[in-house]
Amino acid sequence: MQRSSSERVLTTAENVLAAVPFAVVAVVAFVNVISRYFLNASLAFTSELTVNLAVWMVMMGAVIGLREGAHLGFSALHEKATGIARQVMTVLITVAILTFLVVLLYFGVDMAIAQLDSGRATPSIRIPQWLFTAALPVGALFGVYRTVQASRAGFRRSTMDSQPSEEADR
Amino acid sequence: GSVTATPDKPVYTWDMTVTVGESSTWYQAAQRFAETLSRESGGRMKLRIFTGEQLSAGDPAAGVEQLMNGDKDFSYNSTIIYAGIDPRFGAINAPFLYRDYDEADRALQGGATAAYEKLSSEIGVKMLGFGESGFRQLTNNVRPVNEPADLAGIKVRIPGIGMFTDIFRRLGANPTTMNFSEVFTSLQQGTIEGQENPMDVISSAGLAEVQRHLTVWNYVYDPLILGMNQDLFRSLSPADRKIVEAAAADANAFQIETNRGLEQQQIDEQSKLMKTTVLTDAQVARFRAAVRPLYESYEPVWGPEMVRAVSPER
Amino acid sequence: MIGVVLFGSFFVLLLLGVPVAFALGMAACVSLVAMGGFGELSIVPNVFTASVASETLLAIPFFILAGVIMEYAGISRRLVDFAHACVGRRKHGLAIVVIIAAFFFSAISGSGPATVAAIGSILIPALIRQGYAARHATSLLASAGSMGIIVPPSVAFIIFAVVVSDYAGVSIVRLFVAGIVPGILLAAALVVASLFLPRTQPVKVAAGAGAGSGGGHGGDRGDGGDAGSPPAGEGAEAAASRGLGASFGKAVPGLLVPLIILGGIYGGIVTPTESAVVAAVYALLVGLLVYREISPRQLYRILVTASAQSAVVMLIVGAASVFAYVVTVNQIAENLSDALLGLTGNTVLIVLLAIVVLLIVGAFIDAVSALYLFVPIIAPVLLEAGVDVTTIGVMMVVNLALGLVTPPVGVNLFVAAGIAKVPLAEVVKGIRPFFAAGLVVLLLVAYVPELSNWLPDLLGF
Ligand code: NA
Ligand code: NA
């Protein structure tokens, strides 16, 4: 597949924004176990970090899922349909996915702004809460692009033959 | 029968959540609140009650945010949960702040309630008074806890708020956070060795089956805010506001009375099931001294106004 | 009324081909607007983040990460080799190897498709070379993989515990233990079914030529094999020719994983979430230092793969929680439960009704979505009928495990078809005997509560 350099940058950004939070969550959780059992020193306060970072991991992982056609669904009717019917279905699927993403985007921004205004921060480490909520609009924005892309391809890349993220090999 | 809405007599359907289950005094009080609202408004005010933070996927902090932005109308939530949103709310949960309910009541009437009303208003919540989760007590499986040194190394499950971590670390314990649904099994398995909660929770979760020692030490006073979305409150007619405020006052009084009545009964029952120590004032004083340095680090967080408002009038 | 809008729009969107997570989210959005205008939508990000940011549910990405690492580390292949050395030489031995290896891997992995992917890429080609038809090879793998959510650890049990907590409390640990006996029963039933598989003369191929090459393809895994997957191993047939001892030795680090997970949880050392992260780190160490099949630069790839796989599940959790919010505020589940209870007071019939409903639901949607949608409706009814919560959990999970292999939406079928590069319809043709075996186990579990409760009671959970 021909891939432009901007496409590659985008893919890298998506992968990094999903993988780094995952790595941080896993390392922090592991260090917490070790410190609690072997050093008898609790890092209980870290749970607010791991739990909240999961939002970034989920949103960006979901974008990778959109990119690679990994989200599970019932595609039999859509695959069987031909001609206009198929095109109409493709448009409707696209609209449905985009609408949900736009809701997450629009109201996610609202929520992040409300948290920014109220100064809400995580209880112990005091990380501003909006930094985590921002995963919703940011992820949704990436997701919108990937959905339009998949829609152009007619959602043909079914879950069966999804390819590994080539970028991840580099 | 059905009620017809007219411009001066609007009909409302409101949602309210409580953090705990249907067997709790919180839920009973919410039901009483709903009944009073319905009766006093001639059926115009309908209140639907949801337990277990069902409207926010079980997450109480997200539930308070719903109350703040008007996605929800009413809730009973602990100040501990509010402190997760704005740490100033944690002032009244300071460790070993009040000796007993008399002292707490005097502080509440002496300015704490007014201060919390003002604070709630700042985040968009109309506080309709305090209910009460009661004093939080400690259970564990390692040894009787009579003085700070007894807590050394005990793995205690705590709420996920920074101050609780600091209290237990200060006292030499090994605190950890965990979903409450896993607490019973984790105590049984030894993943954790102790936990702290109001008597009602300790009793209704049957923790005595998996815990040997109970320490009645009144270490944290845990009031409940009966909150209403502020914009909603302001949109009501003066007459309707009065109905809501009077019904709330009645529900809170009922909740506190029921909770305190049950608490003594629960301590009596549980002390037959667990080795129970009720700490003396002198023993509590040693704990208070041990956590004293925390006050210095948290007073700037709570702010001088809140610190003054909650301070016991000794 | 809102209930009709909610479930109606969900099924229309689903049938159109909208992925389940988005169909759930979109149906909820439509219903919210119908309830009170666009302003109601402000609840969506609130409930979405609240449900996803959960300490309990963090176990899901961690168990998935552990599973991905173990595949890269070559642990799954060594488990297959060991199973092969145990029983591979008997008649139908390889079919039994599949079931035993799937059982081992199920004790590591929390999901069905991950189990199929982990061992399928090695065992499906091997089965075909031994003379099994592709339809039988793939359907056997798909069915054996459904043990992934019954044998602990299990994503499905974690979700069940979270969702059912509004109605009855049960710990994840108790559910995990309760899944062991039904898991063994299902393995036994699948062995029986596989004994009747027809077989032609084995095709002679040099050992190792195909087996073990390529990682798992597709499914909900978002990852293929090829460049980044573990290097080709010796192949199952080759392993069988070597001794039991040698293959056991090589499999030990893998066999220790279930011990670490279950022993850690049951021994009171770690919580289920912590056990998952410990398992992931352990697998990583095995892959880096013992088997040396993971290079540090592959770590990035592992993380990307695992985060995409986790997100596919967690996006469903988030969207289903918004869906569940609409159900709760409109008291839809209560009304449906009451209606169900109104149909009959006979416990036997109610249980049967629940089974039929979940078989139909499981045909179309995945286990996680089904649990969010149907636990609030079915659990109160079964509780009312006197069924204990542990049995309800095991029964629903076994029921939905069957859904993993029922068309049109059967993830395990997708993954198996993807690995074998055969059409889905071909896999479906072979599924009947295994589905029947699963159905027998489901009925046993539903009507004999001791099967679920005996072990956890015995061990005191
Ligand atoms: Na499993
Ligand atoms: Na299915």
Q: Cα distance, first to last residue of chain B?
A: 53 Å
Task: Spell out the helices and strands of chain C N to C.
Answer: HHHHHHHHHHHHHHHHHHHHHHH
Distance between the termini of chain C: 42 Å
Continuous helix count of chain B:
11
Q: In sequence order, what are the helices and strands of chain B, one letter per element?
A: EHEHEHHEEHEHEHEHHEHH
Low-confidence runs of at least 5 consecutive residues of chain C: 205-234
**Total number of distinct structural domains of chain C:** 1
The helix fraction of chain C, in percent, is over 70%
Q: Note the quaternary state here.
A: heterotrimer
What coarse outline of chain B follows from CA principal-axis ratios?
globular
Major sheet details of chain B: 9 strands, mixed
What sort of overall outline of chain C do the alpha carbons produce when their principal axes are compared? globular
Helix content bin of chain B: 40-55%
Give the C-alpha Rg of chain B. Answer: 20 Å
Structural class of chain B: alpha/beta
Largest sheet of chain C: none
Residue-averaged pLDDT of chain B: 93
Count the helices of chain C. How many? Answer: 23
Which band does the percent of strand residues of chain C land in?
under 5%
- The whole-number mean of residue pLDDT values of chain C reads 87
Low-confidence spans of chain B: none
Question: Which structural traits does this protein have?
Answer:
heterotrimer; B: 314 residues; 11 helices; C: 461 residues; 72% helix; globular; binds sodium ion; transmembrane (chain C); membrane (chain C)
Write up what this structure looks like.
The complex is a heterotrimer of chains A (170), B (314) and C (461). By secondary structure, chain A is mainly alpha-helical. Helices cover 69% and strands 0% of the residues of chain A. Chain A has 6 helices and no strands. In chain A, helix 2 packs parallel to helix 6. Chain A is elongated. The N and C termini of chain B lie far apart (53 Å). In chain B, strands 1, 2, 3, 4, 5, 6, 7, 8 and 9 form a 9-stranded mixed beta sheet that branches. Chain B is globular. Chain B is built from 11 helices and 9 strands. The relative contact order of chain B is 0.18. Chains A and C meet through helix 1, helix 2, helix 3 and helix 4 of A and helix 1, helix 2, helix 3, helix 4 and helix 14 of C. The complex binds sodium ion (NA) (2 copies). The site of one sodium ion has 8 residues of chain C, from loops.
